[in-house]
UniProtKB/TrEMBL annotation:
Keywords: Signal
Gene3D superfamilies recorded: 2.60.120.1440
Bias kind Basic and acidic residues: ranges: 270-282
Species for this entry: Dongia mobilis
UniProt keyword Signal present: yes
Name the record gives this protein: FecR family protein
Cleavable signal peptide: 1-33
Pfam families: FecR (PF04773)
Amino acid sequence: MMNAHTHNTGRCSISISGLLALTVLSFTSPVLADGPAGAATLVVNNASAGDGQLEPGGGVNAADTIRTGAGSAALLAMADGTELALGEEAELTVLDFVGQAADSIGKFTLEVTSGAVRFATGSFAKPAYTIRTPSAVAAVRGTIFSMYVTDIGETYIAVEEGSVEIRSRRGTKFTVPAGAAMFLNTRGDVDGSLFNPLAGADLSALPRGAVPTDAIRRMDRTLLAATSVPGQPATPRALGLPAAIEAGVIKAEDLPPFATKTPAYGKSKYGTDKDRDKDGGY
């Protein structure tokens, strides 16, 4: 079951057996390159993995591209403990997944090409995690963060816990702490803003940031509604910091202070949407 993509006939379904099988796998096989990288634990409406439909319990393998349809969402549980949430019309590819061994820290590389995604890291060492988009490379440093990639490759990132190191297409590097958000266009121009992670990811202070904020909130509403059925398994860290705190997975008092001043990367030269329109857009 874990290494096959199966047909999804229901509107919303959750697999207990698939989640348990993944848990057994993660404890019995320290090197995972030859097995599934993870599995879907929840699919709302429709999603695909590789060449087939994805439903709960269906395996996610290295090199698979995961896509969700309109009005759809999905939760993935990876074998290292990483949790991923995907909103509607999202697309990501598992470029590489190699488990920890005696001479390895593990390796997990994703490419996100469209839509809203939330990433909550697992048990691999911090240098193991890399996420690529058309306009940035993110090195994850033990964290929960939300990401939105536009149809022309712009990247929005809001860090809810921990920090993310970003490298733009110009090669410039930035550290984005919890409570800070960042926008990068395909030329490498950057904008930054602050938000309150206890209220959820908010990118609305960034250029055209209402669109990604709405997409992330739609993702959360869809997944929260699907996981609210009593007795059903959920992955609350992938549902964002407020949901994780409410579920007791994370204690608010244990969180470090959030960013309280303008992020060091500051503003790009494109200060307003009007300026961008004048410049001809991206």
